[in-house]
Write a structure and sequence with these properties.
Layout lengths: L2 H10 L3 E6 L9 E2 L15 E2 H15 L7 H14 L7 E4 L20 E7 L12 H16 L6 E5 L9 H14 L5 E7 L2 E5 L9 E5 L4 H4 L2 E2 H9 L7 E7 L11 E4 L8 E2 L5 H13 L2 H9 L9
Parallel strand pairs: 1-11, 5-6, 5-7, 7-11
Antiparallel strand pairs: 1-4, 2-3, 4-12, 8-9, 9-10, 12-13
């Protein structure tokens, strides 16, 4: 990859951001009614997301065989094998703000980690609403147990948003506030983990920065009144706002999630790719403009944030 491309990536996204998504933008991601066959050690309940359950199954098995560390490629391909064996067509993928050597050992906490571990975990079942899901709350609880037991995350540094009546509600504003707090607290050397399990959607692009004409979205609990959260908003609130020297790993277990964080480098676990490559037709100009607005504090970034509240589409 050219030095110019890498320089553009670093200018637009100062932090090291990696995302595992459950599917490509054009695909949907499954909710599983019974996760028993995934052989999780202590599942929070019967239901769960197909991506989260498959990923946990692979990662727990990897920890049982410490002499045979799986690479990023191994993890994604094994997740795909599990999904395919259960007749799910979704193709998981890894995207990043910098090219990742997918043959290096998989990690959530970097080997050169020196700071604090923080996590933000969001699970929405949309209880009582049309399109109610059954496994998203369990996904968060299962993954929370994993990162605490296997990666040393502390309870006091994990923020959980669930629509279960016991945790902070995953409303539009609460989600954005939680991302902002994570960004403000995270300093160079810190490691962040973010998990979203819920509906994902697509809205018509408003600013011409999407090759397919659509923004990918997260669907908060109150989406009918507050709107969905566009990928542009996720950039201004999370991806572009994290400081240089912070490493953030995000898992997006939702439909249409392939480019929901607008990251420039992609590896698809389709059995054909053997390295991470620059995303097709990726345009850095919109992100660079947003990055400049974040640094200067002008209204362009805020305009992108407020645009997320305009309109809703069919969720999946």
């Amino acid at each position: 990859m050219s030095d110019e491309l890498l320089a553009k990536a670093e200018a637009a996204i100062p932090a090291e951001v990696r995302m595992i998504s459950g599917c490509k933008d054009s695909q949907t991601s499954a909710d599983v009614s019974n996760v028993a066959s995934f052989q999780l050690p202590d599942p929070a309940g019967r239901a769960g997301g197909a991506l989260t359950s498959s990923l946990l199954s692979v990662l727990y098995a990897d920890h049982k065989a410490p002499d045979d560390d799986l690479s990023f490629q191994d993890v994604l391909l094994k997740v795909r094998e599990i999904l395919a064996a259960k007749n799910f067509e979704q193709i998981p993928q890894l995207s990043a703000s910098r090219p990742v050597d997918i043959h290096m050992p998989f990690e959530i906490v970097p080997s050169d980690f020196t700071g604090e571990r923080r996590a933000l975990m969001i699970g929405i079942n949309y209880v009582g609403q049309q399109g109610e899901l059954s496994g998203c709350q369990n996904d968060v609880l299962n993954m929370k147990e994993y990162i605490m037991d296997m990666h040393g995350f502390k309870e006091e540094n994990i923020t959980v948003l669930l629509d279960d009546g016991s945790h902070t509600s995953p409303t539009h504003q609460n989600i954005l506030d939680a991302y902002q707090t994570l960004v403000e607290q995270s300093q160079p050397g810190d490691c962040c983990y973010c998990h979203y399990a819920g509906h994902g959607g697509k809205l018509r692009d408003q600013d011409g920065d999407e090759a397919d004409g659509y923004d990918e979205t997260l669907v908060p609990l109150d989406y009918e009144s507050a709107g969905q959260i566009r990928d542009d908003t996720l950039y201004t609130k999370l991806v572009g706002a994290l400081k240089k020297g912070v490493t953030c790993t995000s898992v997006m277990d939702c439909c249409h999630s392939g480019s929901v964080l607008d990251l420039p480098f992609v590896f698809q676990a389709d059995g054909e790719s053997d390295e991470m490559a620059a995303a097709d037709d990726f345009d850095f100009d919109p992100l660079t403009k947003l990055a400049h607005s974040l640094m200067s504090g002008n209204s362009l970034g805020e305009a992108a944030v407020h645009a997320a509240a305009e309109g809703c589409c069919q969720i999946q």
